[in-house]
Amino acid sequence: MSRIHLLSPRLANQIAAGEVVERPASVAKELLENSLDSGARRIDVEVEQGGIKLLKVRDDGSGIAADDLPLALARHATSKIRELEDLEAVLSMGFRGEALASISSVSRLTLTSRTADADQAWQVETEGRDMEPRVQPAAHPVGTSVEVRDLFFNTPARRKFLRAEKTEFDHLQEVIKRLALARFDVGFHLRHNGKTVLSLHEAGDEISRARRVASVCGPAFLEQALPIEIERGGLRLWGWVGLPTFSRSQADLQYFYVNGRMVRDKLVAHAVRQAYRDVLFNGRHPTFVLFLEIDPATVDVNVHPTKHEVRFRDSRMVHDFLYGTLHRALADVRPEDQVAAPA
Ligand code: ADP
Ligand code: MG
């Protein structure tokens, strides 16, 4: 047996990266969530070769103070929580202080940032190496840019799992769409290989919100969806549920948010499936964009590193509320002819 030794920070970060950094889309998710947490109103994403060669996220948020820049790349370093109690009611998208450390350990990362009270911007660079990041002056308006180049350049085993450029880009675009539905008050712009692919302007009123839903879900969705807005027992559910006639062969138009965080939750999926049970053919999947607002102290979002899962304190109550609300919403479209076999 060899002796026990501590892993180098770089290797520790690369191992941890396995949990959150699977592909360019997961990098995009972490960077965009950071931008949203910083109070950005506009986020620009620039991508080359599906995000494998380059993924750049630029925001107009709070920025990071020069002294904090090296810390931003360190593991377990966060400005979002301080004590365990803070986790109980966390509203920011991030809080684990791991994303930038993980991403920078498997890519060539440059972080440029400027706060409102600084007279200039500062930049740190890493190359997946164990070095003290260098902080140097740079030009940048108030806000932050993170540039991630050559993802997995130093971890060939991970690189092998990347798919074709188009597949990676599709995943990445889906991440942006999910976040764009979570935050109508923020503009999202995406360029791929020099071409504008998505341009979602800040959507303040109801009309522009609907326009954004149409851009993300396709114009047919809203024409064939029922609006929902219910508040009961401290729970609020709003959004749109697709009519059974607008069901899909894949579960690819299903957006469910808990307090602004998109989740893929078994309990939620079950409640929705039950509500649609008698109006959908076997093998068809409902479509929906739904937002659940609930006391943050009654949900645990720290279940999984990517935070796709949540745990409700009173899961029965949440389930019944969702099922009841959706079942009632679909009541009008529940005549016999919906369940009859097609001619
Ligand atoms: P977390 O988001 O869990 O705190 P990250 O590794 O994603 O951890 O980011 C570390 C810290 O860097 C954040 O807590 C935040 O203070 C700062 N940060 C990262 N990205 C941005 C950004 N776009 N704007 C402002 N601050 C940022
Ligand atoms: Mg983060």
UniProtKB/TrEMBL annotation:
Organism: Ectopseudomonas guguanensis
Keywords: DNA damage, DNA repair
Full protein name: DNA mismatch repair protein MutL
Residues of the full protein shown: 1 to 343 of 623
GO cellular component: mismatch repair complex
Function field: This protein is involved in the repair of mismatches in DNA. It is required for dam-dependent methyl-directed DNA mismatch repair. May act as a 'molecular matchmaker', a protein that promotes the formation of a stable complex between two or more DNA-binding proteins in an ATP-dependent manner without itself being part of a final effector complex.
Domain called DNA mismatch repair protein S5: residue spans: 213-331
Family of this protein: Belongs to the DNA mismatch repair MutL/HexB family.
GO MF annotations in UniProt: ATP binding; ATP hydrolysis activity; ATP-dependent DNA damage sensor activity; mismatched DNA binding
Biological process per Gene Ontology, one example term: mismatch repair
Superkingdom in the source lineage: Bacteria
